[in-house]
Write a structure and sequence with these properties.
single chain; 28-stranded mixed sheet; 25% helix; 21% strand; disordered N terminus
Length: 1174
């Protein structure tokens, strides 16, 4: 296993790469950040340079850097004293610059200033000088490090010292990373009928291959399917735009909220990659101006969904021209929106018509009969109902669901109602289903419509049970009637149904929110509070005072809402005596009260509360929490998140019915009160990120009904022995990775384990050691066993007797020497151990889908580590992904028979054993590749090939029938043998990245590479020429000369990016023929290079980086790059190729000119001209 931690299964692609100096931050800040990111579901690679050896970035680290989308360097006092950290940073900067905005850097300044990183102070400057002297490093290498440091400083990051504690800044980092990584795809729910032709029509209108701007307005009545169509088109096209795409939902409704348009402007800017600009927006006009500036310089894909009027579009697009290639899609019920004409676009209309009769009948039947067509008895009746509905998809779905299983009399009565409803009155049609609900089900529907769309279901269900609304039945009815959907345990509702619910509430007393049953907008809440009448009808309200000047609600104001059962308050507090207020509350959510409370409430009695949530609430301390819950006998849920004044939990004796208890981010929490053991009804206990909590009371073992127990990111030394006797427990998660390995804190799983209902056991703790006890045979329902990053040394044979075990994860368990026979139920096996001595036997777990076995041979220099072979591989019937890193172990002969295998990684296997591969493979990675690995035939489906050659001088990929290969990555690592690489007939190849092949002299291209978009060569010290043959090119101009690199556009007709890094044998580069697709050209640290010619042929080049070579004198055509956006010059002598009086470089092109680590120019071409004149 590599010397790093990964918050992911071994072999998965990482999303985030964390670079840091181990002695400075590993135990503490970086550890906490790592686990917080990991718990947020983010796959993170954590490298520790202390554990590494050698002088070159190795393959595993290189892959982690290449695969990651976000890089987080943690700059600390001695970061610049580490060659590893500086090498990583240089590679990170290189990857980011070539990613076309698809990769990002988020720096953290731990205990240093940004000026330190920018080399303005002696701290990092002297550290690099010391490295240069002590290690006798080259000027080129050191200068590259200095440039990387200065470049990264230009990126806004977090200065830890400006925050109150680690938790605050870590929470911000996790939130930002989550926002940037979240998938752009939109969820499309329901049975889709008749949508394909519409998708094709809109996609053709958008024409993403055109260089022009396209804005499409989809208009039509509500419920006709505009949003669904926009989501599908957006999902299909978003991959063309990387991070520069955004789907803004419910623009019309959100614009009506306080600062609604400003928030939409911020969201738009953040999602297309400008969070810093977004944070500066405080007024609509300013936001419009900044959006216009951004959209004029960036190709984007944006959807504005459910726009009410043209003004909303203008405020969100700005008044500037849109960047060529941009696409904007607008959905609206208002046809007038499409009459906008911008500076370089007009809105093309697409009218969304009702479904065809056949499609509408099919959709209706899918909900009314669970089939594609109605039964014969109901055929005519179904057709009449669909016609009466008006063929609107939402109404068809809702009415069809309502009629499912109903008597024929109900069908005929419904048809009669529909016939009396105006054809275009969607609400009245939908209201037929609402009217059919019981009183309790209506209350649930209205609560969701007004408050809980997008919210987790659990807390609302507790409240509804307390109100006797029978939610288990009620929610099922709403789902079956297509009025509500549950997506990932959260409520989802169509905006038409949401509007229906809110309109029903408004009609209770038009214009008088104080008489409504629910109030969900701040303005209406204020309006109701200003009147002195009792508000006996109001059951629920939400109020956000974070941007209000008035932060307080008096006891008199809240006391007028005597029947309030739900209150959500953000950014405000109460004032006065609350003895007679909030007494009927069932659910209170209170977050972010002002930190300085000039008025504090008294006598807050919550005797009837069922759900109590506090978040970022400094008002709540030990005594107040104790006072609030001492009489809360009905309390079922207590959740405290980021309440820093909580230092110990209260006495829970007063709330014996508590079922769920959550402490998250209470980083001063030190002690759990022993009374927690008396909570016999508790089923779920979660304690996360409580950094002062070191011990758990033994009384926890008295929680006989507990089903879920989680302790993560807390320095708790060990689990109490009493935990292992909880027969009701279903899931046990314990991760104290925050703590160091300490022999005094070592612990073992006890010999007596009575968790007879346990399904998931996950422990990540370096202090857990010893043998997994045989008592695990008492876990008949165990599905998941994860013991990664522990010192577990042995898994007992009894594990084969666990009938339900599906996942066994033992990653980075370096004391395990062998595994016993494994159960047939297993479908996921991951084990990595530097002590592994025996290859796992695979004849029994025949249902494996994922297999990852690593003997740590990456760290071994010689010798056969494992004995045995991969017996039983041929019996595996379902493997999808295999990763086998086993030194000198014979390759399994049965690999070719694994017909479902998609991904395969082979490393270190016995070079004398021939290997045949299955034709199903899509991705293949082979370390120490040699001729015995057969690539000769049957790999027609392969799309990605990564090779690390061993004892091979030549690789020829011609004639191998790799018709679908899109990615080729030869990597040298420790290989000093590969001299020639031949490529031919690879018509779908998009990416070639050749890295660290020191003996590679020549790459031969045969034929035209009509799909190749990226060509990269790094650290190829002997590379001297590219050869061309075949029908694509001929003539003297391509005569190969040593050191002359020719790039003919006829061969590379689709090339977008070229990179040449640290290739000292290259003397000159020549671009032949014009190209309008080339975007990036990077040539760096090639010390013998003296000329780059033909750049003027690259008509649309956007990024040029050249320099850091000793002799580069000619950069021909630099001055003619009219589309350039970024220019980086690493040698001040090249400035002469920019004539400030005649240059065609755009004035807004960003320029960076390195003149030594003490001096550089940074700014636009316009500012460079002024600088030269002055």
């Amino acid at each position: 296993m590599e010397s790093s931690d990964a918050g992911t299964s071994s072999g998965s692609e990482y999303q985030v790469f964390l670079s840091f100096r181990g002695p400075d931050t590993r135990f503490g800040f970086t550890d906490v950040l790592f686990h917080n990111l990991n718990d947020a579901g983010i796959r993170i690679f954590r490298d520790d340079e202390e554990l590494r050896v050698g002088e070159r970035i190795d393959g595993s680290l290189q892959r982690a850097i290449d695969n990651s989308k976000i890089y987080i360097p943690v700059f600390s006092q001695t970061y610049a004293s580490s060659q590893w950290c500086l090498r990583e940073l240089a590679q990170i900067m290189a990857n980011t610059s070539k990613s076309e905005g698809k990769k990002e850097i988020l720096p953290i300044f731990f205990d240093v200033e940004p000026d330190d990183v920018k080399l303005k102070t002696p701290l990092y400057r002297d550290a690099i000088l010391n490295l240069e002297r002590e290690k006798k490093l080259s000027n080129e290498q050191v200068d590259a490090w200095r440039e990387a440091l200065m470049e990264v400083d230009a990126i806004k990051g977090w200065e830890v010292k400006k925050y109150k504690g680690y938790t605050d800044v870590i929470n911000l980092v996790v939130e930002e990373v989550g926002q940037r990584l979240k998938t752009k795809h939109r969820l499309v729910t329901g049975h889709l009928v008749g949508i394909d032709d519409r998708v094709v029509a809109v996609t053709e209108l958008l024409d993403v291959d055109s260089y022009s701007v396209r804005v499409i307005g989809i208009h039509g009545m509500g419920g006709i399917g505009k949003t669904t169509l926009a989501k599908i088109v957006f999902n299909q096209l978003s991959s063309h735009y990387g991070k520069c795409c955004c789907f803004l939902e419910d623009v019309g409704a959100n614009s009506l909220r306080t600062d609604g348009l400003v928030e939409l402007q911020k969201k738009l800017l953040s999602e297309i990659g400008h969070p810093g600009v977004a944070r500066s927006i405080d007024a609509i006009d300013y936001g419009t101006k900044r959006i216009g500036e951004v959209l004029s310089n960036k190709k984007v894909l944006i959807v504005f969904d459910d726009v009410a009027n043209s003004d909303q579009v203008l405020k969100l697009v700005g008044g500037n021209t849109l960047h060529p290639g941009s696409r904007i899609l607008i959905t609206t019920r208002n046809k007038d929106v499409s009459r906008i004409n911008g500076p370089n676009y007009r809105i093309l209309e697409y009218e969304m018509e009702v479904m065809s009769s056949d499609h509408a009948l099919e959709l209706f039947s899918s909900h009314a009969f669970n089939r594609d067509s109605p039964s014969d008895d109901y055929k005519n009746l179904s057709g009449n109902i669909v016609a009466a509905i008006g063929r609107l998809p939402l109404a068809v779905e809702v009415i069809g669901s309502f009629l499912f299983g109903k008597r024929e009399e109900i069908w005929r009565e419904t048809l009669e109602q529909l016939s009396k409803t105006p054809r275009d009155d969607v609400f009245e049609k939908l209201k037929i289903s609402y009217d059919a609900l019981s009183y309790e089900q209506r209350q649930i529907f209205l609560d969701i419509a007004c408050f809980f769309i997008g919210q987790h279901t659990m807390h609302a269900i507790y409240m509804w049970k307390d109100c006797d609304f029978f939610p288990d039945i009620g929610v099922d009815v709403l789902i079956s009637m297509s009025l509500v959907k549950i997506v990932e345990n959260r409520f989802w509702m169509h905006d038409q149904l949401r509007d229906l619910g809110r309109e029903i509430v408004r009609h209770e007393k038009p214009g008088n929110p104080g008489e409504w049953s629910r109030i969900w907008t701040d303005d209406d809440v204020f309006k109701a509070m200003r009147t002195k009448e009792m508000k006996n009808n109001v059951q629920a309200l939400t109020l956000d005072l974070r941007k209000s000047d008035n932060k307080t609600i008096t006891s008199e104001e809240i006391g007028r809402f005597q029947h309030l059962r739900y209150l959500g308050l953000s950014g405000g507090t109460f004032r006065g005596n609350l003895a007679m207020s909030l007494t009927n509350m069932s659910w209170i959510f209170w977050s972010n009260p002002p930190r300085r409370l000039f008025f504090k409430p008294t006598n807050m009695h919550l005797n009837n509360v069922v759900v109590l949530e506090f978040s970022n609430n400094d008002f709540i301390d030990n005594s107040k929490l104790q006072s609030l819950i001492k009489m809360a006998r009905k309390l079922k849920v207590l959740s405290l998140e980021y309440c820093q004044n909580i230092k110990r939990t209260p006495d829970f004796s007063g709330c014996p019915n508590l079922e769920r208890l959550n402490f998250n981010g209470c980083y001063n929490l030190r002690k759990l009160h022993g009374s927690i053991g008396k909570l016999r009804s508790l089923i779920d206990l979660k304690i996360r990120s409580c950094y002062s909590l070191e011990n758990l009371p033994e009384e926890i073992g008295n929680l006989v009904n507990r089903k879920h127990f989680l302790v993560e990111e807390c320095p708790v030394k060990k689990l109490p022995n009493s935990i292992w006797k909880l027969k009701s427990l279903c899931e046990l998660h314990f991760d104290n990775g925050y703590t160091r390995i300490c022999s005094a804190n070592s612990w073992e799983i006890p010999s007596v384990v009575m968790l007879e209902n346990l399904e998931v056991l996950r422990i990540y703790s370096r202090n857990l050691k010893g043998r997994l006890p045989p008592a695990i045979r008492n876990l008949p329902f165990l599905r998941v066993l994860r013991l990664s990053q522990t010192r577990i040394s042995e898994v007992p044979e009894i594990v084969s007797m666990l009938p339900c075990l599906q996942t066994l994860e033992l990653i980075d368990c370096d004391e395990i020497q062998e595994l016993p026979m494994l159960p047939t139920s297993l479908n996921n096996l991951q084990v990595s151990s530097k002590s592994l001595r025996v290859v796992p036997h695979l004849s029994n777990p025949t249902n494996l889908v994922l297999l990852d076995v690593d003997d740590g041979s990456h760290w071994k220099q010689e010798g056969k580590i494992c004995i045995g072979d991969l017996v039983g591989m041929g019996k595996l019937s379902k493997p999808n992904k295999l990763q086998l890193k086993l030194l000198n172990v014979p390759a399994p002969a049965e690999l070719a028979s694994l017909s479902l295998l998609k991904e395969l990684c082979l490393s270190g296997l016995d070079p004398q054993t021939p290997v045949r591969l299955p034709s199903s493979l899509l991705k293949l990675r082979v370390d120490k590749f040699n001729s015995v690995v057969s690539l000769s035939s049957g790999l027609e489906n392969l799309s990605s090939l990564e090779l690390t050659p061993s004892q091979v001088q030549e690789i020829q990929l011609g004639g191998l029938q790799l018709h679908n290969l899109t990615e080729l990555i030869p990597k040298g690592d420790n290989c000093d043998t590969l001299e020639t690489l031949g490529l031919s007939n690879l018509t779908k190849l998009k990416t070639v990245m050749v890295t660290a092949c020191p003996k590679l002299v020549e790459i031969q291209f045969v034929g035209a590479f009509e799909s190749l978009e990226e060509l990269s060569f790094r650290w190829c010290e002997s590379l001297g020429r590219l050869g061309y043959a075949g029908e694509a090119e001929s003539g003297d101009e391509l005569t190969m000369e040593e050191g002359r690199l020719i790039l003919p556009s006829r061969v590379f007709c689709k090339l977008r990016r070229f990179e040449l890094l640290c290739c000292p044998k290259i003397l000159q580069i020549q671009v032949l023929g014009t190209s309008e697709l080339w975007k990036n050209f990077l040539v760096w640290d090639c010390r013998s290079l003296h000329s780059v010619r033909g750049l003027s042929n690259l008509k649309k080049l956007e990024e040029l980086r050249v320099g850091h070579g000793d002799g580069l004198q000619v950069v021909e055509g630099l001055d003619e790059l009219e589309a350039l956006k970024y220019l980086c010059i690493g040698d001040p002598s090249l400035e002469r190729w920019i004539d400030e009086s005649t240059t065609k470089l755009p004035n807004d092109c960003r320029v960076y000119i390195y003149r030594g680590y003490k001096e550089h120019f940074e700014g636009t071409v316009q500012s460079y001209k002024r600088y030269k004149v002055s």
